[in-house]
Specification:
Length: 194
């Protein structure tokens, strides 16, 4: 009887004092800047979303949060214009400046320069606009970067893809960028490549 009375008193005092044991760990969100620079005009909302999803899967809540405003893109354009460096040869210093101005802990940049798909016809070893077997020609030129401020590590991937294959086995141009972006963020985070 005395033990239950004492336990009741402890519970009552705990409630009156407002003490609550911690139920979950407090996480400090690390902002992630996803920047898409499309110089082709070929990227629609669905394509951009599929690329965004690759970044979101690598940098997800509760540790990371992707910035949903256009601020990272505007800052990146300003910094790139001021640096006058070609996008194909960006340095960690450029990404450090972008990360500081956004601010962000991780900067993922996709600079798309060419993305085309067209049907061509094959007659032997030549491609023509008519006659012969139908093939699909896919061309992609893009530069992908991932930069982390905590390690000051920059990984880059140049995509120079030009394939002509049968239509059923041809990889669509947006998928080429999507899977290379996924490989790059997984490599940065030391995750298993799929």
């Amino acid at each position: 009887m005395k033990k239950s009375w004492f336990l009741g008193l402890v519970v009552l005092l705990t409630c009156l004092c407002g003490f609550q044991p911690p139920t979950e760990a407090a996480f400090a969100y690390k902002p992630v800047a996803f920047v898409l620079l499309d110089n082709t005009g070929e990227v629609n909302k669905d394509i951009a979303s599929s690329w965004y999803e690759q970044v979101r899967q690598a940098y997800h809540v509760p540790y990371y949060e992707i910035i949903k405003t256009d601020t990272p893109r505007q800052v990146a354009l300003e910094v790139l214009a001021a640096s006058k460096e070609p996008v194909a040869r960006l340095t960690p210093a450029v990404f450090k400046e972008i990360a500081q101005k956004v601010p962000a802990e991780v900067v993922v940049l996709v600079a798309l320069r060419q993305m085309q798909q067209r049907l061509v016809y094959s007659t032997g070893f030549r491609w023509h606009d008519e006659g012969g077997e139908m093939l699909e020609e896919v061309r992609v030129v893009a530069d992908l970067y991932v930069y982390r401020t905590d390690t000051q590590q920059l990984l880059g991937q140049k995509i120079r893809y030009w394939e002509t294959e049968e239509v059923p086995v041809s990889t669509p141009a947006p998928e080429v960028v999507k899977w290379e972006l996924r490989r790059l963020v997984n490599k940065m985070e030391h995750r298993e490549q799929i």
